[in-house]
Amino acid sequence: MVEKRIPKKRSKADLLKDFNNSDWSIRAKAVFDLKKYDDPKVIDALIGRLNDNNENVWLSAANVLKNSKDPRVVDSLIKTLLDDRDEVRWHSAYFLGEIGNKKAVEAIINTLNDKCLEVRINAAKALGKIGDKKSIDALSKALDDDNALVRKEAISALNLLSPTKPINTLVNSLNDNDKRVRSIAAILLGKTKDIEAFDDLIGTLDDEDYIVRISGVYALDKIGGEKAVKPLIKALKDPYWEVRSDAATALGKIGYNDAVVPLMEALKDDNGFVRKSAAKALEKFDIFKK
Asked: How many Å apart are CA 172 and CA 190, to the nearest integer?
């Protein structure tokens, strides 16, 4: 019977020596095995791997260090935003977003003009996660990016930053050729609750895409007021049931009596969800109370 040998457990010192190995796979494995050690010497060594010339080793080290509080990690990732490797740059932006240190904001803003699409996308995402309002202007300019995915992420980031008033470039995004951009622009403008965006948002209720129309209803619901009642009543006749249902709910929240008769007509809608929304909306009025 052949005796089965149990691999000898390698020490921390042995693993640190592996960082000098010419084989990148051995260096990457050492990073993985060292992640359980939380002491300065290991952190120093892992930070050193953020200069590794192999993308896999670099990525392994960055993924481990993203949870570290050591300020050198942020400094190193800021430097690699200028790396000539696309994958390193976009991962650097991503990890900086996960870390959330505002020190990185200016450097990330600069990458919104990067030649690589993935870098620009992750830069916009990172700025939204970090949440520093000084990135609002840069994200607004990114709404003019040639790629719809960048424009979408820029709007999503602005949504997280929650600007208090409509941004002109956001209003322009209501006419974007990508439905995702138009939809998120409507949602963000609704969140501002600023009446200045109202007339522009009414147009979204005639958009060719039902998701954009739903977003338009959401926005008008957020802004509210008597002015929103007429366009929402019109939306009760939308071809798509979810637009009609959301419009009924919005009319109930706004609470103007002009909506009562149209909501009663919606009780005959072919879709059960629309009928239910209309019934709940009517409960907000006094017509059923004696």
From this structure: 14
Write the DSSP symbol of residue 84: S
* pLDDT per residue as tens digits for the range 84-115: 999 999 999 999 999 999 999 999 999 999 99
Q: What is the DSSP string of 151-211?
A: HHHHHHHHHHH--SS--HHHHHHTT-SSHHHHHHHHHHHHHHT-GGGHHHHHGGGG-SSHH
Residue 194 tokens read as 């600023």
- What is the residue whose two structure tokens read 């009543």? 233
Residue 56 has pLDDT above 90, yes or no: yes
**CA 157 to CA 145: how far, in whole Å?**
14
Output the CA–CA distances (angstroms, integers) from residue 134 to 102, 125, 137, in the order listed: 10, 15, 7
DSSP letter assigned to residue 133: G
Are residues 104 and 76 in contact, defined by beta-carbon separation less than 8 angstroms? no
Residue with structure tokens 């939809």? 183
Cα dihedral value 219, 221, 222, 226, nearest 10: 110
Tokens of 280: 């709940």
Token pair for residue 24?
A: 């990148």
- DSSP per-residue codes, 15-76: HHHGGG-S-HHHHHHHHHHHTT--SHHHHHHHHHGGG-SSHHHHHHHHHHHTT---HHHHHH
Q: Report whether 139 contacts 127 (CB < 8 A).
A: yes
> What does the buried/exposed string (b/e) look like for 157-194 if buried means 16 or more CB atoms within 10 Å of the residue's CB?
bbbebebeebbebbbebbebeebbbbbbbbbbbbbbee
Residues 151-181 pLDDT 10s: 999 998 988 887 666 677 788 899 999 999 9
